[in-house]
Amino acid sequence: MKILIVEDDHTIAAGLEYTLQQEQYETIICSDFQSAETLIELNLEQFDSSYSHFISD
Questions:
Q1: How far apart are CA 33 and CA 18, in angstroms?
Q2: What is the pLDDT of residues 3-16, one digit of tens each?
Q3: What pLDDT, on the 0 to 100 scale, is given for residue 3?
Q4: Strands 26-30 and 2-6
């Protein structure tokens, strides 16, 4: 499963990423909503078919 994490605190983002990867999740981290939105828009087909969870701060 793939998870997009939107978190502006680097320490929290790194902790989430590490923990989720230990559970075999693929992760992408964005530091703000605007960059996440751009990433999703540029890769909408990929996100529609393969990402089922979005974590936002």
A1: 21
A2: 888 999 999 999 99
A3: 86
A4: parallel
Paired tokens of 9? 């605190």
What one-character DSSP code corresponds to residue 1?
A: -
DSSP 3: E
Alpha-carbon gap, residue 57 to 5, rounded angstroms: 8
Q: Supply 15's token pair.
A: 């902790």
The DSSP result for 4-51, as a single string, is EEE-S-HHHHHHHHHHHHHTT-EEEEESSHHHHHHHHHHTHHHHHHHE
